Amino acid sequence: MNDLICVGSIAGSYGVRGEVRLKSFCAVPEDIEGYSPLTDEAGNERFPVVLTRAIKNGFAARLGGVENKEEADALNGLRLYARRDQLPSLPDDEFYHADLIGLQVYDTGGTLLGRVKSVQNHGAADLLELHGPGLKSTVFLPFTLEIVPTVDLDKGRIVADPPEGLL
Questions:
Q1: Strand runs (DSSP E) across 46-163, as ranges?
Q2: CB count, 10 Å around CB of 60?
Q3: What's the CA gap between 140 and 128, in Å, rounded?
Q4: Rounded to 5 degrees, what are φ and ψ at 84?
Q5: How far apart, in whole angstroms, are the C-alpha atoms of residue 123 and residue 92?
Q6: 157-160 and 150-152 strand pairing
């Protein structure tokens, strides 16, 4: 399992004094500040984070070492990570997206359907984006207990009962 979990991203600068627009991917958005300092994906660069105010779709924040608008603009698109051991442990029926990506998905008869490429959420519920040799195109599988009754992180597999006609 990956020791770093993506908890947010930078969506450009905010103002002219080096603040950034910060999108939080945390269940409680403000919690992102408590995981500071955050790192880049490689875990090399560390960014102390202080939220300064709530703004539309996120927060204005100060990152340690970022002093002006140009430096803030240069970080646009940067994904920010926290160490797994900094984050709360989850109940048995909740998962970090990073743990689902790459898992193989089987139907209830044991046939391999594909592999989870990403986890998407467009407002209603999480969707598992599946890719695989037997699929003509990308399939989005609703990530509900009814459709995905089993997630076995130890074995790296998901058992799904997709709705008729989805695959």
A1: 46-47, 49-55, 58-63, 79-83, 104-107, 112-121, 126-131, 139-142, 150-152, 157-160
A2: 17
A3: 5
A4: -50, -40
A5: 23
A6: antiparallel
Report which of 62, 55, 93, 68 is spatially closest to residue 17, judged by C-alpha positions: 68
DSSP 8-state secondary structure symbol assigned to residue 90: P
Nearest-angstrom CA–CA distance, 100 and 158: 9
| Rounded Cα distance, 97 and 137, in Å | 22
Number of helices (H) and strands (E), helices first, in the chain? 2, 13
Give the span between the Cα atoms of 129 and 97, in whole angstroms.
11
Q: Are 38 and 110 in contact (CB under 8 A)?
A: no
Q: What is the pTM of this model?
A: 0.74
Q: What is the pLDDT along the chain (167 residues), one digit of tens a residue?
A: 568 999 999 999 999 999 999 999 888 899 999 999 999 999 899 999 999 999 998 999 999 999 999 999 999 999 999 999 988 888 888 888 889 999 999 999 999 999 999 998 877 788 999 998 878 888 999 999 999 999 999 899 999 999 887 87
Angle of CA points 68, 53, 95, to nearest 5°: 105
| Cis status, amide bond into 37, omega within 30 of 0 | yes
Beta bridge partners of 150: 159
